[in-house]
Amino acid sequence: MHQPLYKDPETEIYELPWTLLHALKDYRDFPLYLDDFKIKCNFNLTPVLIDQIQEYSEKKEKTKCMLLDCTLKQPDELTLHEKSFLAELIKILPEKLLSVIPHLKSEVINNSAEKFPTLDVQILYLLAWAGNKAKNAEAIKTLLQKGKNYTQADKYSLIQEIFNIIKEVIPTYKRLKDEGRISISTSAYYHPILPLLFNIESAKEAVPQIQLPTIKTDFSTDGKIQIDKAIKKFEDVFSQKLRFLWPPEGGVSEKVCSELNERKIKAIATDEEILFNSYAKEKSLIYKRWNFNGITILFRDRELSDLIGFVYQNWDAEHATADFLSKLKKIHDSVEWNPLVSVILDGENCWEYYPQNGDDFIKKLYSKIEKEKWIETITLDEIENIDVPEEKLPKIVAGSWVGGNFLKWIGSPEKNKYWEMLADAKLKKPDSKNYENLLVSQGSDWFWWQGEGNVPFVQKFDKLFRNNLKKFSENYL
After folding, report:
1. How far is it between the farthest Cα atoms of the chain?
2. Neighbours of 348 (CB within 10 A)
3. In this structure, are 358 and 380 located in the same domain?
4. How many domains would you assign to the chain?
5. I need a labelling partner for 183 at 20 to 30 A (CA). Which of 101, 129, 381, 415 fits?
6. Residue 376's closest CA among 4, 40, 144?
7. Which domain holds residue 223?
8. Which of 330, 363, 389 is the last residue of a domain?
9. What is the rounded CA–CA span in Å between residue 110 and residue 112?
10. Statement to judge: residues 165 and 139 lie in one domain
C-alpha cells in the first residue's frame, strides 16, 4: 500500500486525492476480509502513506485537501480551475466504479460545462469510491439508496463518515497483526529507488547500455536516512521491531541488502527476474527460500501476481479463481519440496477495474484457499520456521520488479533531468534546514510518470517534485 506525498510544500494542500479515496475504498476494507476467512495475508504500508492517513484522521475537515475543498463548496462557488479539476477526476474514473452509480454517469453525460459539477455529482463521485465494507456504514448506505437530489447536509454526513472510516485504517492493521492474522512490512520512507541512491551506476547491471545522467553527487547518505526514518516510523506506529521490508518498487542491489542486514532486517521481497538475472532462469527456483549474506529474499511469482493485478479483472470470479488454483496446484505438483509461492502486487491499484471492487473474486478465492488442505497461507513472521529448502544466493544483479531493471525511473532524457536537478540542488544546499523536502523529491513516483506521454495529472506530479526541490534549496528553481 503506497501513495507519494501529494501535499504541496508551498501551500500545504493535498493536490491529488488518491490517499483519501483509497482509504475510503481499499485501505480498511481489504484487511477486513480476513475477519471472514481463516487465511493469512501480508501488507506493506509505506511510511509516507501512513503519514497522510494519520493527517486525514487527525485533522479531518481541517485537512487542506483540494478534493475536500471542492466538495464542501456549493457548486456555484467553485472557480473555473476547481471545476476543471473535478471534471478531470471524473473523466478518469474507471468504468467499473462509474457503472455502479448510474445517476453519476447520466449527470456527466447530460450536464453542460456551465452547470457542471452539480451537488449530486460532488456526492456521487465520493460514493463511487466507497468500498464494499464502507457501503455498510449507515450514512453511506442511506445516500446510495437516495441516489440523487442531495442536499448540503447530505454532503456533510458523507464526509463525516469518510473520516470515521479513515480513522479506523491503522487500528485495523494493528488488531489483525496482534491476532496473528497478518504481518506488516514497510518501505524506505518516501519510496525512493534505493539502489540508485546508493550507486546510480547500479542501473547498468541490468541494462549496460543505459544512458545515465551526468552527475557526481553521492546520495548514499540519503538512502540510509530513508531507511532509518522508515524503521523509526514503523516502530513508533506498530510498537514492534521492523523485521520485514519491501524495497520500493522491489528495487534491490547488494549494497541495499548490506544496509538492511546491518539494521537487522530479516527478510525482503522482489521480483523473480532478479533471481533469473543473478543466478539462473529456472522458474522452480523462485519457490525456495533464498539467503543473501544473512538476509532472506522472497521472489514473487510474476505470472500469478500479474494475473490478479491485470488479467482476472476481465474474467468472471468463478473462472478466475479456478484458474488461479489450478496454476497453484501445478506448482505444488511440479517440485519435490513444499513450494513457497510469493504472490505480491499493488494493494490498491487494480481493484477499481474489477466488478464490485473485486468483492466477488476475493470472497471466492479466499473461500477456496481456506478449504484446500494442500494450501497453507503464512505470514512473514512465520517465514523462518516453515519447511522449505533454503539456498544461498552468490550475487545480486541490481534491478526492480518492473522488467528487472530501473528504466521506469532513469535512462530517458526526462527522467535523467530529474536526477540532474536533484544532484544540482544538493550540491548547492547540502545543509538546508528543509532537508526533508529533498527526501520527498527522491520518491519513485515523480520519476515514473516523466516521459511517459500524456498521463493524467502529470503536471501535478511535476509541480510537486519541483516545489519540494525548491523548498529544500530555497529558491533554487
Report:
1. 68
2. 20
3. yes
4. 3
5. 129
6. 40
7. 186-258+395-477
8. 389
9. 7
10. yes
Instruction: Quick: pLDDT tens for 63-78.
Output: 999 999 999 999 999 9
Boundary of a domain, candidates 389, 411, 445 = 389
Mean pLDDT of the chain, nearest integer: 95
> What does the alpha-carbon distance between residue 360 and residue 13 come to, in Å, rounded to a whole number?
36
Q: Report the candidate in 344, 462, 346, 412 with the shortest Cα–Cα distance to residue 203.
A: 412
313 with 334, same domain: the answer is yes
- Please compute the mean of the pLDDT values over residues 202-215 and round it to a whole number: 97
Reported as a pLDDT band with limits 50, 70 and 90, residue 125 is: very high
| Residues 28 and 118 both lie in one domain | yes
- Asked if 244 and 183 count as a contact pair (C-beta separation under 8 A), the reply is yes
Is the omega angle on the peptide bond into residue 4 within 30 degrees of 0, that is, cis?
no
State the cell numbers at 10.
508551498
CA dihedral 131, 95, 52, 75 (to 10 degrees): -100
Report how far residue 336's alpha carbon sits from residue 208's, in angstroms, rounded to the nearest whole number: 37
Same domain, 33 and 116: yes
Structure confidence at residue 191 as a pLDDT band (50, 70, 90): very high
User: Within a domain: residue 8?
Assistant: no
pLDDT band with cut points at 50, 70 and 90 for residue 387: very high
Show the cell assigned to 436.
526533508
* One domain, residues 43 and 134: yes
pLDDT at site 428: 85
Q: Which of 3-12, 57-66, 309-318 has the lowest mean pLDDT?
A: 57-66
Task: For the full predicted model, state whether its pTM sits above 0.85.
Answer: yes
Question: Which residues on adjacent β-strands are paired with residue 267?
Answer: 244, 296
Q: Is residue 7 part of a domain?
A: no
Domain-embedded: residue 238: yes
d(C-alpha 370, C-alpha 362), whole Å: 12
How far apart CA 104 and CA 91 sit, in angstroms, is 11
* Rounded Cα–Cα distance for residues 406 and 91 (Å): 31
Assess whether 399 and 364 both reside in one domain: no
Amino acid at 340: L
- pLDDT, one tens digit per residue, over 339-362 is 999 999 998 999 999 999 999 999
- pLDDT, mean of residues 39-43: 98
First to last CA, the chain: 32
- Asked, for residue 347, whether it belongs to a domain, the answer is yes
